[in-house]
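Page 37, top half.
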Amino acid sequence: MSPLRGMSPLRGMSPLRGMSPRGRAGAGLAPLPGAGRAGAGQRGRPRARQRGRAAPGMFNRAVSRLSRKRPPSEINDGEGHPSSSHQTLKGTSKWATSLESLLEDPEGVKRFREFLKKEFSEENVLFWLACEEFKKTQGKKQMQEKAKEIYMTFLSSKASSQVNVEGQSRLSETILETPHPLMFQKLQDQIFNLMKYDSYSRFLKSDIFLNHKKSEEQEENSPEAQTAAKRASRIYNT
């Protein structure tokens, strides 16, 4: 007996329409056109939605990891104290980092001048310091007076502490007619580079620097200094 015998088809509709693909296969019928593609599309859509939902989760986890990272200032050593690499350098340790750091320290400037004086080139650092002070000068009259003093001391052909700068033979007092804070900047930069690549490296190897460094180390290792450091440590940890 045919499996379709006795079925009452709906009006205007084929008796086989609406059957599931599995039912059609059981009846020995071929699947409807496009049925396989439709099923595949339906099965594919939830996966696409799942991939779309995974991205925000990955982003939130990455943000959470970044938020847990500490800034360098909060990095401590094994005992909970700030790492020594982030502590403020002082004395010869600071001077050895750069010429800029050396010139920021009054004691460093004093020792550097002492060294340059032995090398007969103290006028270089004196000119640099005078230019730095000139930049802070207020008022046209005061600026003219200070500019003239710098010119007569370091730049003129009759200067008592003449510095060696490029184009010095072309310099004249005409530059003093319209003074401004940066009028000596190029000459100051020349002298700075001369000290940086010549005198400064020798200063770090000089007896003046090494002896001062040795005296610092002796003071740090003295019983008084160690006692003070322990006392400060106890206060810090309470």
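Page 37, bottom half:
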Amino acid sequence: MGSTEKKRGRAAVVVLGDIGRSPRMQYHALSLAEQAQVDIVANGGSDPHVAIRENHSIHLYQMRSIHLRGLSKISSALTLVIKAALQFVILVWFLCVKIPRPDVFLVQNPPSVPTLAAVKLSSWLRRSKFIIDWHNFGYTLLGLSHGRSHIIVKTYHWFESYFGRMTDGSLCVTRAMQHELAENWRIKATVLYDQPPEFFHPISMRQMHELFSRLQNDICRPNGVCDCVSAVAVQEGLDTDEAITELNQSSDTLFSSQIDSNIFFETKQTSPCCQ
């Protein structure tokens, strides 16, 4: 048993963000766990899938998110620099001290700053492979709020492309991104399409009906953003409050009906306000 365990490799999955909101990286961790021990280093937040939490080959290390709200009121640029520096130190500490030495670091991009530099340094110190999984380009997302010509965006672009070329391998989500990386970034990436794990499957009609029932109050809020019931009540000459009460007390929703143990989808035309 001991010799078998030693033969298993070890991988570190790095996400400078909420791992619970990174399904692709969770899928990577589950796939890697079939052949190796996996350490996930990520920020706290929402819980990852139960398959991650109950897998004995996966170990979760959560970092605290950094918030500098007081400083951001004084200088947003200074806040970004200080936050990046603190994140860099914390990330290197986790990758070089807190977790066992991995054979490979697999890091999600974006965010690029300071993630790529921290993982590159850690991979060099620990003699591990450094692989980036490209989900998007960080500088383009930053450009949405600052504009492509902003000095911060240009610096981010240089940082992302520089450390992006220092990897031992790259993965990406589409052929379009693969082409962009090859032509303009001189990075050779392998396309790895998302493939849902075994626990991912379409929900049943009963589960859909239960979901619609739980959402009933929000959907039917009078004079709301998407007030379907009020519109239908007016069309049928009914009082809005009476229509909502009747709908809440029944086993029907706007989209489904239950007769005995059978669930049916409604075929009524949806109000234009909800289309």
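Margin note: The two ends are 59 Å apart (CA to CA).
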